[in-house]
Amino acid sequence: MADQEKEILEEEMEQDLSDAEELKEEETEDEEPVSKEDKKAAKKQAKLNKKEDSYKEKIDQLEDRVKRQMAEFENFRKRTDKEKQAMFDTGAKSVIEKILPVVDNFERGRQGSKEDPFVDGMNRIYKQLMTELENIGVKPIEAVGQEFDPNLHNAVMQVESDEYESGVIAQELQKGYTYHDMVVRHSMVGVVQ
After folding, report:
1. How many CB atoms lie within 10 A of CB 171?
2. Does residue 141 contact residue 184 with C-beta atoms inside 8 Å?
3. Antiparallel, parallel or unpaired: β 169-174 and 177-179
4. Considering only CA atoms, which of 179, 177, 176, 151 is closest in space to residue 85?
5. Could you give phi then psi for residue 187, rounded to 5 degrees?
6. For 15-71, what is each residue's pLDDT tens digit?
7. Which of 87, 90, 187, 178 is CA-nearest to residue 137?
8. What is the DSSP string of 89-119?
9. pTM listed for this prediction
């Protein structure tokens, strides 16, 4: 709609400009113009100039309006893209949280004899599951031997250790995981006192 208004204003402005050119031509044809005609032509020219200025102002306003609407739309698009991504990440995090207990059970089940074909099959399935989780951005949180970080670890007990210094994690009770740098589950750890 703004484009149509702009076109109409431009057409009217072109018509007024052609009228002004005709007036200039009439003035040059008449070598001895009459003063009344000069006054009329001057008035008409002033009106045309005023109209031209008002058209230019209207065009500028319409262009400004269109630019603002385009900027608003771009901001809206960016905001909805960001919200869509946040919803996707929240949904993915929820699904991953439900899968992690299955991963824990696989890890417990793998602790049997390595020569048992059942345990070997579990190891292969576990490896495939972990590869797929890693491919979608799920990574285990490093714990044992790392400095305790409350953003990544959940200290459930204090332990004594000759191997590690105070404040370092000596034992991991449950593995923690991140999804695209967002903590899905904190590591449950024992920290050296």
Report:
1. 16
2. no
3. unpaired
4. 179
5. -75, 130
6. 776 776 666 665 555 544 458 888 888 888 888 888 899 999 999 999 999 999 999
7. 178
8. HHHHHHHHHHHHHHHHHHHHHTTS-TT-HHH
9. 0.59
